[in-house]
Amino acid sequence: MNFIEKTRIMDEAGMRRALTRISHEIIERNKGVKDLAIIGIRRRGGPLAERLAEKIKEIEGVEIPVGLLDITLYRDDLTTLASQPMVLRTEVPFDITNKVIILTDDVLYTGRTVRAALDALIDLGRPRAIQLAVLVDRGHKELPIKADYVGKNVPTSKKEIITVRVKEIDGKDEVVIEELAGE
Amino acid sequence: MSFEHHKDLLGLKDLGKEEITTILDVAVPMKDIIKRDIKKVPTLRGKVVVTLFYEPSTRTRTSFELAGKYLSADTVNLAVNTSSVQKGESLRDTIKTIEVMGADMVVIRHSMSGVPHYVSRNTSMRVINAGDGVHEHPTQGLLDMYSIREKKGTLEGLKVAIVGDILHSRVARSNIFGLQKFGCEVRVIGPSTLMPPGVEKLGVKKYFNIEEGLEGVDVINVLRIQRERQKKGLFPTLEEYANLYCLTRERVSRARPDVLVLHPGPMNRGVEISSEVADSVTSIINEQVTNGVAVRMALLYLMMGGSRDEIAG
Questions:
Q1: How far is A72 from chain B (nearest CA, A)?
Q2: Domain for residue A143, yes or no?
């Protein structure tokens, strides 16, 4: 399948500013960083979680624990996917019980990934609260799930695809809207 | 991923290196689940796995059962000695009965080589071979490979010695087929009466002398000596077997200093392996059991976790 790029909605600087603002919002809303931990949904939520933790450290001078969550085994669409997704490790090297977890992902779309992530998280312990941070909220939710922190709201059509690229995985930072060629 | 086109797992001979790698890779996150407080994920809700063992087993059967439960599948053990099999029901009818009750997978062990292949041709359920006669025991081969890879970091180019009753060992065969795909040098060590004729044709090096065979190896996989073989006159006494082939500390010292010792269990301490070696730091025998559950979870996920239409056939 070929995708053509339609619009670039965030470049490196744009992404950095969005993450900086979200970091400030997280600190403000939680009145500091006590009991805070950030968990990124694999794969691209992972690097975003790391960056939020770095920003928070710059601002508050406190190191926040960071974890990685793989939600493959909790998905509700395994039997309908054309190709079986690879299972990666969940790496949460701290107890999440009584922590305030900032769950981080690149794009909020149907909400199903977040639903799976909530189930996966609760199997690891009982956090005091879970808040959701996403770089892009593109609409079309199918579940009653809402982000607490949003980098950018981008109204899209269902034919469009939002691609988030991060340096750690893709070699560069950007967010683009793509569409299937020939449609 | 590259495991999607198999309906069944009958032997490691039929799998490619990439497919084996996929199974071992998926087993890594599965092992994490076993170590959690809540050892359950919802992945295989509504799937049914039946274990059908025509030979005794504790660890393999329990391992499959737990692997299924950790993934939320329903697992049922069919106890052959209290079932209709005792009333003369044919294997084919037993399989059909399980199938029409709605099972998605059957895990079968049988004393006759080739039975899982026969079952595979006669059912739409997925089939895993849990040991057939002297042919293969693929999930044991996979868990051995996982255990070695986890400790050594890689399988590529390792020297692996398999010691004991090579002739009757499906574990040996699955290990040989699997390890060779990763470029391992596989050596087989044992008395001539327990060595399959023409074993060199499998590409392995044959040793009758254990000291020679263990020289410089990275891994020693010790096989269980089945006492019934002695009755058939294949070796004179257990004591004599132990004198010549028991893995002792002195013999282990022939191998590399960082050697790993594996045993598929159950062990006959003092026969094929000394207690000292079995309980030493080089031994990963207990960890193999945990890894067995992880590898079987990976297989259940890969074989039943996706879309049935896509994977069938």
A1: 8
A2: yes
pTM above 0.95, yes or no: no
- List the single range of A162-171, B78-87, B272-281 with lowest mean pLDDT: B78-87
Name residue, tokens 């981008």.
A154
- Taking the CA of residue A163 and the nearest CA in chain B, the distance in Å comes to 22
- Number of A to B CB contacts under 8 A, please give it: 61
Residue A171, CB-side half-sphere exposure with 13 Å CA sphere:
0
Query: B59-68: per-residue pLDDT in tens?
Result: 999 999 999 9
Nearest to B220 by CA among B192, B177, B256: B256
Cα separation, A129 vs A143, in Å, equals 19
ipTM of the complex: 0.88
Domains: count for chain A:
1
* A106 and A136 Cβ atoms separated by less than 8 Å: yes
| A3 part of a folded domain | no
Read off the tokens for B46: 């509504």
The proportion of chain B whose per-residue pLDDT surpasses 90, expressed as a percent, equals 87
Q: Which residues of A touch B32 (CB under 8 A)?
A: 89-90
- Print the domain residue range for A55: 11-159
Q: Is residue A176 part of a domain?
A: no
Mean pLDDT of chain B: 93
DSSP string, B18-60: HHHHHHHHHHHHHHHHHTSSS---STTTT-EEEEEESS--SHH
B1 shares contact with chain A (CB less than 8 Å)? yes
* Contacts of residue B202, Cβ cutoff 8 Å, sequence gap at least 6: B173, B176, B180
pLDDT for position B38:
94
Residues of A in contact with B42 (CB under 8 A): 73-74, 119
Check CB contact of B34 with chain A, cutoff 8 Å. Answer: no
